[in-house]
Amino acid sequence: MLIAPMRQDLARYGVEETRTPQDVDRVLAEPGTVLMITNSVCGCAAGKARPGIGMALQGAIRPDRTATVFAGADEAAVAHLRGILSDVPPSSPSMALFKDGKPVFIVHRRDVEMRDPFQIASMLTEAFKQHCA
Predict the structure, then answer these.
(1) What's the pLDDT tens digit per position in 84-97?
(2) Tens digit of pLDDT for each residue in 3-17?
(3) What are φ and ψ of residue 101, in 5° steps?
(4) Is residue 28 a contact partner of residue 22, using CB atoms and an 8 Å limit?
(5) How do 65-70 and 102-107 pair as beta strands?
(6) 4-128 belongs to which CATH class?
(7) Number of Cβ within a 10 Å radius of residue 52
(8) Per the residue annotation, which of 42, 53, 120, 123 is the catalytic one?
(9) Partners of residue 128 on adjacent β-strands
(10) What does the alpha-carbon distance between residue 129 and residue 92 come to, in Å, rounded to a whole number?
(11) In the chain, where are the structural domains located?
């Protein structure tokens, strides 16, 4: 019950929940671009990351798909995604833009903490223009 509203914050933007490793693999196996979000209960996720993601997803250029795992809730899915991103230190919240199954752009928690939602949206929008257009 605690995290349901936090899941809904992203679902209202059309972000698909991936709660198992198989869900993560299914989404990342599709051709094209995928923004994979590691959601969390922390304040920077609520006040910065989720609003910034929502703004970026309103733009004309965006990934073919967006999906999320929830740190502390979807433990196996999060561990699997972190295994795929083994060169990136674990982070929540975080975002990884994949193109044809390969990561091409990463936003780490430290990148979120130092920005406001508008700056996060701008950073994502630029990544979408570069990798999704």
Answers:
(1) 999 999 999 999 99
(2) 888 888 899 999 999
(3) 85, 0
(4) no
(5) unpaired
(6) alpha beta
(7) 25
(8) 42
(9) none
(10) 24
(11) 4-128
Q: What is the CA radius of gyration of the chain?
A: 13
pTM of the model: 0.94
Q: Is the Cβ–Cβ distance between 86 and 96 less than 8 Å?
A: no
Spell out the alpha helix ranges (H) of the chain: 4-11, 21-29, 43-44, 50-56, 75-84, 109-113, 117-132
Q: Are strands 94-99 and 65-70 parallel, antiparallel or unpaired?
A: unpaired
CA–CA gap between residue 41 and residue 95 (Å, rounded): 15
Quick check: is 42 catalytic? yes
Helices (H), 12-74: 21-29, 43-44, 50-56
Alpha-carbon distance 20 to 50, whole Å? 21
Choice among 10, 36, 44, 49 that is catalytic: 44
In the residue annotation, 132 being an active-site residue is answered as: no
Strands 94-99 and 33-39: what pairing? Answer: antiparallel
Residue 79's pLDDT is 97
Each residue of 23-74: pLDDT tens digit?
Answer: 999 999 999 999 999 999 888 888 999 999 999 999 999 999 999 999 989 9
